[in-house]
């Protein structure tokens, strides 16, 4: 049996010290002394360019040519012009962009999209025009645009798409760009204590390593970047291949970045650091376990579905570059807190861990013991997803709602989250111990789980069992709420429970006769029947946010009751049926 414990919150004194340290750091970066540290030899060329194996979007590239920007389903229009176009360097004058747009623009990841434009001359002109204006505004240290993770991404994108931004006869422009590259690498070299944790840290390290590989005189950058990478492989990558944030999308993006790093070591004739290839193998195996039959990611802790073609390309690239056979899947992520049951095309993916540790829980969800179910390419039971790319609705914090326990297919007590969502965006108090145990015999799978996230408030421990039969067409579940009997006055306050099963919007849902069964019709015409015992059943409205920047209406099955007894048991099943 796996047990995952979550440490308590960071002490207040440590938080104050961290804030004070950040203030001092920012003051030092804007000082004359730091500006002198960024001086050094001017590179005249690149020693090579890293290869980006992932294709950009032709549509997004066309928007850039037309002086607009496209990111995750949204177009950024200029309110100062009727056409919405951003002329010249106007985009770099805006200081009211939200975090996502600012990171997208200043990391220059849009160069991948511009690279897909058929008219190469138009793409180069637009890229260099935007680059000239950016250099005029941000060649010096800036709080946001020079943050380590954005610098790391920008260095890699500038080098990977050097033909778009360096193919110029303007020697002054070329020199300024190459010098800015080197200055940013020096900043990364001197600011390694400021990398943070998780995905931002890995991006910064990747940028420092690639700067050391491809920019002349970068030997010291490469040495420090390699040392930081070896340390991060033990602190950021878990033994089962998961990542500290427990966000499958972070795992996917860190894997992509590290694949480019490994390929670059090889391309430039350097030995790959020990531990990197085994870590990539573990990460790839775990990523496979978090993918449904449609080739896209499961929705846990801030992840969105992602593009199936890019996912497949990433896995193929990882397996091919490591000279390993494809198909290895990690069914038991005992450290990262995910379990996978799979039989005959039916997949169940469950969240069997507490939220990530506080400092890396920035996108975490209160989703412990939630699960998702798919059959073939069709998702059936889902979590709602993440609303980070959508504006809030009137009188509704959509992002906070998407992180709540109620937005996941699991048990909710008294409409309270199993983990606290703090005002600073991190995950506070919640489950301190989560257990899970998966067994398999002759094609039959059983997963037993528990968490204590409701113990302090309600004296309740949630136990959940999921069973998948050998045909993959019979799923049974049991949710047990064991209530610790408190003082007599407290026993009168038995909590209300809701067991929520969010249904994918492509699945048609209807109540059957007697209102005790639900019929689900999949897009391929298959019918599945849901029924329960031990709670009242109802259908309610829900939303689905699995596709980036898109809100879809869907339904949810809700089983409700009161946990008044020492043990309340609710049994439910979902089976495929023949319907004529």
From TrEMBL:
<dbReference type="InterPro" id="IPR008929">
    <property type="entry name" value="Chondroitin_lyas"/>
</dbReference>
<dbReference type="GO" id="GO:0042597">
    <property type="term" value="C:periplasmic space"/>
</dbReference>
<dbReference type="GO" id="GO:0016829">
    <property type="term" value="F:lyase activity"/>
</dbReference>
<keyword id="KW-0732">Signal</keyword>
<feature type="domain" description="Heparinase II/III-like C-terminal">
    <location>
        <begin position="332"/>
        <end position="573"/>
    </location>
</feature>
<keyword id="KW-0574">Periplasm</keyword>
<protein>
    <recommendedName>
        <fullName>Heparinase II/III-like C-terminal domain-containing protein</fullName>
    </recommendedName>
</protein>
<dbReference type="Pfam" id="PF07940">
    <property type="entry name" value="Hepar_II_III_C"/>
</dbReference>
<dbReference type="InterPro" id="IPR012480">
    <property type="entry name" value="Hepar_II_III_C"/>
</dbReference>
<keyword id="KW-0456">Lyase</keyword>
